[in-house]
Structure formats: C-alpha cells, structure tokens
Amino acid sequence: GDASVEGVAGRIPEGLRDVIGKRLSRLSQECNRLLAVASVIGREFPLALLQSVAQVSDEELDASLEEAQSAVVIEERSSIVGIVNYSFAHAFFRQTMYEEIIAPRRLRLHQQVARTIEQQYQARLEEHAVELAEHFSHSSDPSDLAKAVEYGEMAARRATAVYAYWEGVGHLERCLQVQEVLDPDDRGRRCDLLLALVHALGMAGEPRRIVDEVAPEALSLAEAMGDGVRASRACQLAASWIIRSGGTRAIDTSETAQWVERADRYAQPDTVERVVADTLLGLLRFYRGRPEEGVALVGKALKLARRLDDPEAFWEAANRWLFLATAPQHAEEALVLAQDLSARPRAGVIMAGLPSTFMFIGSTFLIWGQRGRAEKVWRELDEMAQSGGQASPKIISMLFAAIVASLDGRLEDAVATGQSMSTSGGELGISTQADTLSGFASMRPLLYLGKGDNAIKFAATDFSRALCLAHLGRHEEVTALLEELVLARPGIGSDEDETRTERDISMLEAAVLVGHREAAGLLLRRFAGTGMCVTGYIHNTCIARHLGGVAALLGRANEARGYYQTAVEVCRDMPFRPEEALTHLQLAELLLDPSTGPALSGAEGSAQGKDQARAEALEHLDIAIAEFLEMKMQPSLERAVALQDKAKAGPVRAPTYPAGLSQREVEVLRLISAGKTDREIAEELFISFRTVGNHVRNILNKTSTANRTEAATFAAHQGLT
C-alpha cells in the first residue's frame, strides 16, 4: 500500500476528525498499537508483514483484527493461497493513526517495515521497490537513504518497463529529493538520476521540460566533472527528444544541431555514446542535403552497435537506419535487418523509439509481401499501445489498423481511422506526428474513392502533392514537378541516390497518369528487378502495377503484361484488394489497346487475335467491376464500365482449345514443346517460376499425360505447336 501520508494533514474536517477519534478511542490499547503499525505500512497491509513488525502472537493479532473489523476501521481485502491482506476502511482512519505516532517512533517503524520487507521478499525485491523506497526515505541514516534512492530507481525502471511512464517520473523526482538530503555534493549521482529522469519524461511526453530544464542541468554537472560520457548522453537525449516530439521538421533546426554537435564532441570512439552520436549526425546530414553521407554514417553506427553487443544501442541504430535507408538498393538489407530484429528478445530494451522501430519492421515485411509477418509485429505494437501510457504506440497502432483496412478494401474505414488519428494526436499532445501518420493512412484510400480534393489536403511533401495533382488531372503542374524533381535530379537511380522508395513510386505513378514518358522511363530503370512488392506504410501501393503502367506507356506490351501478372499474384497472396482490382483493369486496358492486344494473344494482325485479347480483357473487367462496386471505388468503376461497354460493342468469339486448355496454358505448352525449362518460360512470359509450375501441372492433368515429353507429343498431334 501507499506508505506516504505527508502533506495530507489538515485535510480532515474537524467534525470528521472528532468522529474518527471517538471511534478509535473505543478500541483497546493493543488494537490501537497494532493499527498504528499498520498505518505506517500503508492504506493496505499484508497480514504477515504486520505481524512481523508488530511482534505479536497469533492470538493477539487475531483479537485486535477482529476488534478493528467489528468497528469497521479495517476490512479484509483478499485471501488467496494463504496470503491475507487488510486495508483501512477509509484513508482518514489511516491518516489519523499515523499522525498520532510521535516522530522518532514513526521513523523507527518505517525502518522496521523496510527491513522486514527486504527479509520477507528478498527473492522479489523489484515487486516491492516502491514500498521499500518510501519506507527507507523516512530514515535519517545515510545507508537507509542510499537504499531509498536505489529502490526508487528500481521502481522507476519497473514502471517504465510496463509503460507507466508518469509513475517512473514520480519515483525519480523523489530519488532526486532524497539524494539532495543524502549527499548534495555527489554530482555524479545527481547527474545519473537526471539522465534517467530525461528518459522517463520523454516517454511521458514532456520534451520541453527535458530540453529547457533537466538536460541542461545534467550537461552542466557532467561538464563540471569533466565527464564526457555523461555529457554526451545528456546531449543525445535532448536531441533525440526534440526530434521525436517535432518529427522530421525538427531535425534541421539550430536547436537540434547544437545538441547533436555537443554530443558528437563528447562521444569517444568505439563506445555506445559514439553509436548514438553517429545516428544523430547521420539524421542531420541526411536532412541537410547530404543523404548518402547520412545513410553511410548510420550504417557505420549500426555495425559498431552490433560489435559492442549493446541491445539498446543496436535497436536505436537499427531504428535510424530503417528510417533513412529506404532507397531500393537497400531493400534486401532492410529485410535481413527486420528479420533479425523480429527474432531478437525485447527484454531490457526500453528505448523511446521502440514503437517506431516496430513500425519500420512491420513496414519492411509488408514491402516484401509478407503481410502475415507484418501483422504479427503490429499485434505486438498494439499490445504495447493497450498496456502503456505512451502516446506514440497508440497512434502508430491506429496507422496500421488503417493500412489493414485499406489492404482489405475497407476504404471508408481506413479514412475514418486516419481522421481519428488526428483527433487522438491532439488529445495525446503529439499532433505533429499524428497528423503526418494520418496523411500516410488516408491519402491513398481517398484517391481510391475518388476524393482527390480531400487527399491533397494531406499532401505535405512534393511527391505526395504530385501524386494528388495527377489524380486530379492537373497535368501542367505535375509536369513541372517531374521536371524539377526527376529530370533535374543528379545521379538518379545510382547507388548514391538515396531518394525514398515511396517518393519515387509516387512520382512514377504521376508520370504514367500524365503520360510523361521520359520521367517514367528513368524511374522504371530504378525499380526494375528489385523484387519489392509494395511501398509500405507511406501511401501504400503495389510497385509492380506501376511498373506495368510505365512499360505500357513506353509501348513494351509483353513487359507490361509480365509486371501486371506479378502484381496480381502479389496482391492476391497478401491480399491487397484495391490494387489487385486496379491491376485487372490495367491488364484489360493493355489487352484492348489495338497496338498491343493482338500481339499479346499470340495472333498479331488477325481477327482471331483481337477476339482472344477482347475475351481475356472482359474476364479481367468482370473481376475488377465487381470489386470496385463493393469497395466504392467510383472513378475506377466508371472507367472499367466504359471500357467494358466499348469492348462488348464488337463481336467476341472466345477461342477454344483441346482438352479444355486455356490460352495461357497453350502458350506454356508451346514453349514446353520447344524444349524450354520452367525458368526460361517464366522469363519469356513475364510470370513467376511458381506460376509456371502451376500451369504445367494443369496441362498434364487436362491432357492426361505423365510428363513434359508426352505433353509435347499431345501438342504436336493437336496442331498446337
């Protein structure tokens, strides 16, 4: 129970004090003595602890408890597995008893209670750190006060570990008060407590108090001692919390730069401080126009953290690297790191950026089409949000709820969740972060729904603005942005080009929508062959669908079809309903284009080729229209229906093949007959190796053949070669 009653005196109204006094005066002397001990223990007191401190027999204990319970002064709280707790029926009873004990005896009782708790719970001291800190703080003995500080720190760590950050702040503030009494000249001890308080305040959402008050005092003490480690730590914490509270806009500020430069000055080589300082320097350089230096510096810090085998430093560096290294050339390395982090134990890692690290891990899995693994990480993040008091996990958890809704085609739910994020961010005091993430959650669903005018309100960056403008048909503005941000960009697509993936995919999509072939071609070369499936948590979309759009724009029909078929497979496996439906629509458009459709059917220039292409296109349109209707994707629905009406206007003679083989299966069978391997067939038809295997199995089943040789013979007999 809470052992402190200081500061409460005088709050009991006089009339009530008299009533309480009269009731207590009716109790026996033995009962009053026992209750006095109980009042020192706290509002709630375990029976075993009370008996041990009061040093009474079982009979005396039982008699006094029965007497106090009959007078409704105390009540039984719990009785499980032989452990019985009692509590005062009202806090005023406890306060009155406590205040009547003379000060010297009260201090001795606190000391006795503390030592008894240590003895009784020596195997579980952390669980009782709060009570131990409180009781030892009432002593005048230096060794007891030192224990009060020690247990107070333990209580703060325990509170922080279960996300009770404000409790942690309170414990550390009391530690500082006790330390001031114990030894006001111990600057190192005070500095350590201040650094711990900085961390707790940051997690509790008080960055300005850190920067304006606590970190400067910690830095001043460290500098006075000539302690570079503590000085660097104070600067790092201040800079980190400025960035976390203000987002990316807070990185390139003079205030941040000043703290980062100090952290760099004090950090020594091959130390944890060096790891954190380099990650902060990397952030600063990235946002000050030297992105390749920034990514390289954070990568160097990550390697050092791994070598030092410091979990906290490793997670911190991994967080920064996953945040910055989002260009396509880092995609495979990011996946390896995400797999490493997801398998690592979380015990002992209480870094402030842990929620955002989970965000990056989940997003990385999603980028590679591993939705199940992403959702497992998000569930852990959701548990963190539900069990803790920190604001950030709650908002990030809402972001991923919106992403899941969007993946499933619940687009209005995704938009509503995005709006709730902004509202909750204001209530939780993190409006900047919440508004940014709300834009990531809402923009793409709004574009799907045809609400470009609403989507552009979230366009806080040049690439998101270009995307929205393209969907709104404002071609001239988009063209100007493409020329500035793509055509004029030096070293585009090189290994030194650190432009974020979602930024360039948005520009690529905008280029396709406005028909800008040059910009689209440059960006296609950047992403061809990367293997990434989607863009992740920022304006999530299917990469292969947009690469297909570029190939189609450039007149490379077979290549476009290959990308679209990959997109369908990716979106079906995840699943990603809106993107799969859009891919079916774009495939239909490709097949119905007179310049490409007949060639794709394998009968270029013939009436049969046109009919085959039209029949396949109508199949894709049937799928797309049904999906668009259900998901309320009105602009895409109108586009698909118009295309369907146009396609149905001409005669459609669906081709038939022996044994019920489909057009695609005939294409595969012809290549089998030509002696092609599955890998060669996949490359020629721009489909996955796995899909070829499925086609081969279907062919053997339909033709009742046992192997590829027999299938080739069947093809020859049927005139399919």
Question: What's the quick description here?
Answer:
The chain is mainly α and 721 residues long. It has helices at 14-25, 29-41, 47-54, 58-70, 91-99, 103-120, 129-136, 142-161, 165-182, 187-203, 207-225, 228-246, 254-266, 272-287, 291-308, 311-324, 331-343, 354-367, 371-387, 391-407, 411-428, 431-448, 452-455, 462-471, 475-487, 501-514, 517-527, 543-553, 557-573, 577-592, 597-601, 607-631, 634-648, 663-673, 678-685, 689-703, 708-717, and strands spanning 44-46, 74-80, 83-88. Helix 10 packs antiparallel against helix 11, helix 12 runs parallel beside helix 14 (272-287) and helix 17 (331-343) packs across helix 18.
Kindly describe this structure:
- By secondary structure, the chain is mainly α.
- 72% of the residues lie in helices and 2% in strands.
- It contains 37 helices and 3 strands.
- The chain has a 3-stranded antiparallel beta sheet with strand order 1-3-2.
- A hairpin with a 2-residue loop joins strand 2 and strand 3 (83-88).
- Helix 20 runs antiparallel to helix 21, helix 25 packs across helix 27 (517-527) and helix 35 packs across helix 36.
- The longest helix is centred in the last third of the chain and has 25 residues, at 607-631.
- The protein is elongated and about 110 Å long.
- The termini are far apart.
Descriptive keywords:
3-stranded antiparallel sheet; 72% helix; 2% strand; 721 residues
